[in-house]
Amino acid sequence: MSTQRFTYTYAHERQVAIEAVVKACRLCRAIQSNLTAEHKISKADTSPVTVADFGSQALIVSHLLRAFLQDAIVGEESATLLRQPEQASLKAHVVNLVNRIDPHLNETEMLDAIDYGAQTCDFTQRYWTLDPIDGTKGFLRGDQYAVALALIEHGEPVVGVLGCPNLLLNPAQPEQGQGCLLTAVKGQGAAIYTLEGTRTHSISVAPVSEPSQARFCDSVEAAHASHAEHAKIAELLGITTPSYRIDSQCKYAIVARGEASIYLRISPTPNYRSWIWDHAAGTIVVQEAGGKVTDMDGYPLDFSLGRKLFKNSGVIATNGLLHEIVLGAIRQMIKRR
């Protein structure tokens, strides 16, 4: 008697994730094109948050729950600010914007959806994690940002969708315009979709094996990464091409489709640990495009420990061919500190 091993394809999860990110990108694009001061608020830690952050999280969480009612969801935002009496006009504004995309979501449902992402969960099991707007400062400048969604199982991403509304759909054919989704499923590769959710083509990392021929991408914000140490690593690698500075998980997109071969994120403070939603979707997109993602010690990113990557210091994403060489340059740089 023959036996067949069933392989779960995550086809439904990928489709629902794409639909959710498409909705969120529609909202974010509309808000960014008409951005005013009333769209921006400062959180308790002084980091900026916009009505688009709240609206994006509400749309994504509500869409996921319609398909996967039992799934845990970990998001960056909570509705605490919107529930304050003095923020009634802000709350009404967010509801109005969300209803332009999903007219069936009422105020209570919207607030509950946002707060659903703030609940605790068992991070060792299945859960979704999302950054409703990754790169809020870039968003506010009218520049690059990403809507990032990933499904995690047993501490690793198995599905990822990156919505990049301001990134060229196809760098080789800029006339096709801005806006793309990058999707990946474990073991099934990575692909580009339009912002409407139509698949266009598969993607792969650049086949660069000589470090001096590589280009690396870096954060725009100096607070997010040590630009000085990144420059030292580039010098050790013999890279003379200026870094590709870009906001958000768009950096992962750039590596995944071969526009750069190295993404470095070495924190200016040694004890800093990244939020899981800042890396989950980008990690699987790069990996399924043929690249590699680890921390600066060469260990895989562990998404099973909570809202932060508590075991991982720094993040290194490469085309795979250069990974060990880059790690070696990092070790040299650390010795010279």
Helix and strand topology:
Blueprint: H1 11-32, E1 40-42, E2 48-50, H2 51-67, E3 72-75, H3 88-101, H4 107-116, E4 127-134, H5 136-141, E5 146-153, E6 156-168, E7 178-185, E8 190-193, E9 199-203, E10 216-218, H6 227-237, E11 244-245, H7 250-256, E12 262-265, H8 280-288, E13 292-294, E14 315-318, H9 323-335
Parallel strand pairs: 3-4, 10-11, 10-12
Antiparallel strand pairs: 1-2, 4-5, 5-6, 6-7, 7-8, 8-9, 12-14, 13-14
Helix pairs in contact: 1-2, 1-3, 2-3, 2-4, 6-9, 7-8
Protein name: 3'(2'),5'-bisphosphate nucleotidase
Enzyme class: hydrolase
Binding site for Mg(2+): 76, 131, 133-134, 278
What is the name of the CATH superfamily of the largest domain?
A: Fructose-1,6-Bisphosphatase, subunit A, domain 1
Strand content: 15-25%
CATH fold annotation of the largest domain: Fructose-1,6-Bisphosphatase, Chain A, domain 1
Sequence of secondary-structure elements: HEEHEHHEHEEEEEEHEHEHEEH
Q: What oligomeric state do the depicted chains represent?
A: single chain
Helix content: 25-40%
Total number of strands: 14
Low-pLDDT stretches are: none
Shape: globular
Radius of gyration: 19 Å
Count of helical segments?
9
CATH C-level class of the largest domain: Alpha Beta
CATH architecture name of the largest domain: 2-Layer Sandwich
In angstroms, what separates the terminal alpha carbons?
Answer: 63 Å
Label this structure with key terms.
337 residues; alpha+beta; Fructose-1,6-Bisphosphatase, Chain A, domain 1; D-Maltodextrin-Binding Protein, domain 2; 2 domains; seven-stranded mixed sheet; five-stranded mixed sheet; 9 helices; Inositol_monoP_superfamily; magnesium
